Amino acid sequence: MIRKSGIGIAALAIGVLTSVIPARADFWSDAGAKYKGVVLHGVTESTPPSNYIKDVLAPEFEKKTGIKVQIETTSWDQMYDKAIKDMEAKTGIYDMVYIEQDIIYAYLARSFLTDISKSLKDDPSLKAPEFDETHFTTFANYFKNADGDLFGIPMEAFIKVYLYRTDLFNDPKIQEAFKKETGKDLVPAKTHEEYTQIAEFFTKYGKDNGMELWGTTAQAHTGHAASWYEFFESIAPTFGVYNWGIDANNNYAASVENGGQMNGDKAKAAIKYWLHLRDIAPPESAASTWTEVGTTFAAGRVAQGLVYGENAAWIASDAEKSKVVGNVGVALPPTEPDVLKEVEGGKGYLGYYDGGAFGLPVTSKNKEATLLFLQFIGQDSVQPDWAIAAPRITNTATYDDPKVLDMDKKLNGYYTMLKDQGKLFAGAPPFPFHAQVREATAPIFYKILLGEVGPDEGLDQMAAAAEAELKNLGYRK
Amino acid sequence: MRSNTVGWLMLAPTIAILGIFGIIPFIYVLYVAFHQWNPFGASPDMIYNGANNFRRLVFDAEFLTSIAFTMKFAFFAVLSEIALGYLLAQLFMKEFPGRGFFRTIHTLPLIVAPIVVGSVWRLMTTPSIGIIPYLLRNWFGYDLNIGRDATTAFTLTVIMDIWHWTPLVTLTLLAALLALPKEPFEQAQIDGANRRQIFWHVTLPMIRPAILATVFIRLMDALRTVDEVWMLTSGGPGAATRYVGLHIWKIVFPKTDYGYGAAISVIVLYLTLVMCWLLYVALVARRERKRTF
């Protein structure tokens, strides 16, 4: 009887306590309660990492917080067009905008972005316990100001790598034919000379054997900025021309006469090398941007090529989209003999480290709710699945996750390369005039591609055009 | 007096909308056109620079080239659309099985967004994956490559525009043809006029206002085309399809040269008005004057 009444009293006490003490859920539901029903709008480029946010992370966040997130994934140009218009006109449509690591300098110069580090310090109730800025890879430095404050949550970071077809490179018949023709073993190229030989060999091999096979990719669109980028960010650095050949410390000189390198001997050698590759690449190369280069490789139309790492995962593992699954090798881009040493010594870079972050425009009408979402996508726990769906790594802990290690094997060590040799790559130079100089010089660059101007003369004209634009913009005195 | 007030009140919403969305932005564009303004420059301030932007464009080879290409594009596209649209309208006037179905199918391109039209045409014309290069190669041994050949790229932008907009011309001219009275045609036949004479002396004069209105609409559209061409060629190869709309877009957005972009926009608007006026004078006003005498 006493025992029964004891149980009854205990049950009553528990009942009273649970009715008095408010239910304690996790941080996200507590922090999100205040903003339940808010709809956040974001705009970003339609890429695998962005689509993952839209399809997976946004719905998860909504489930946990009640805050709805609508992510608009669109083309690269449209994304910039919309984001800049919105921030310029202060309409406040977007709560999140994609910031590529080259545009960040222009956005910071215009004070478009909210200081995320400072905002979280100012209002600790918004700080998620699982979010830690120090867990980001050094790539996050591209999104920081001089004080080390973060202005964007890194969401993608990948390098532009040299992909090659292991099935072709390991084929004994092809190895023999290559040896016969060149006297060398068929292994991934380390120098430009080797790369050219392999490219020439496979283009000829494809032609002789009636195959739809060429020796190399070329991101060589004759009217789109993608070709300009391929040359200045992927090819020129491997010849030792860094920061587009513009010397920011020397009054933004671009021409050799003034101390720049845009029309230097190295740049001229680089463009001739690349134009030759373009000529022996598949016919679609003249209309290829970064996307088409990936699809060309995935379609099995080339033996090797420089491909943005964001495409590497699906090319190597998604049989629905790729014909070369299981046959993709990864290596460092080929360089001029001395360049790798120079880069390893800390001077320059040998390829492009691309990536972006989600920033919070100062014009956003839902800053607090957006800060929650940005932390949600920046926390460690969501990273491994994201890294597998799209080969991007922004947090250091992601490298050691078993799922990521498993994927690394499928990608022939892509993540390992990112971890160990990512330091050899670099993003765009910290120029706030990125798009302006590109557009001022691109028409001449297209003329070079079309053969309307010779490569030497064209680079001379480009260097002069770059300096004129820099003067016009007020950077060059 | 009272009726005037009611009239103004009825017009007020339209005037307000026109003012907010038409006149005020235009005045702002005009204002910007007289300034040097690059918000992403070292000095983001707007600086009054008189007519410098307008002076600059007279010597801007890229702008002049883009105007020349745009004129060429507008000429071929609009002329072909009018001719083809008229023929199709005549065809759809006739009774034949499935006429309603074909009329509907024919108008489908009109409901496709320009950006999608550009994407689809790009897909169809990309070497190695596109159906058009595939067929041309297999049937005629011709290698179509819009990334390398300026003429091909230009021709494709014209064909794409014709595909997209001819249905609009057909619909307008079909409506005009259906509204024509039968008597003049019967009288012409009784007088012994042949088909060609009936077309030149009866049909054409009667549908001239509809043709003129359609030409104006299509001309204005063709002069400011951007999205379709951007998706198909991005303005390339080189500057072969960098039409003036695309040129302005590149000046204003990637280059963020707002002042100069605004000046070009104003000049393009002026050129469009002049062209429409010249067409009006050539096709309507002169004849009206002749008739008066």
From TrEMBL, chain A:
InterPro entries named in the record: Bact_solute-bd_prot1, SBP
Domain of life of the native organism: Bacteria
Coiled-coil stretches: none
Similarity section: Belongs to the bacterial solute-binding protein 1 family.
Protein name: Sugar ABC transporter substrate-binding protein
Main location: periplasm
GO CC terms of this entry: periplasmic space
Localization, UniProt: Periplasm
Pfam name, any one: SBP_bac_8
Cell membrane as UniProt keyword: yes
Annotated organism of origin: Rhizobium gallicum bv. gallicum R602sp
Entry keywords, A to Z: Cell membrane, Lipoprotein, Membrane, Palmitate, Periplasm, Plasmid, Signal
Automatic annotation (TrEMBL), chain B:
InterPro entries to which the protein is assigned, alphabetical: MetI-like, MetI-like_sf
Membrane topology (UniProt): Multi-pass membrane protein
Pfam family, one: BPD_transp_1
Subcellular location: Cell membrane
GO annotation (BP), single: transmembrane transport
UniProt keyword annotations, A-Z: Cell membrane, Membrane, Sugar transport, Transmembrane, Transmembrane helix, Transport
TM regions (residue ranges): 7-34, 63-89, 101-121, 162-180, 200-220, 258-283
Positions of the ABC transmembrane type-1 domain: 67-279
Family: Belongs to the binding-protein-dependent transport system permease family.
UniProt protein name: Multiple sugar transport system permease protein
Species whose genome carries this gene: Rhizobium mongolense USDA 1844
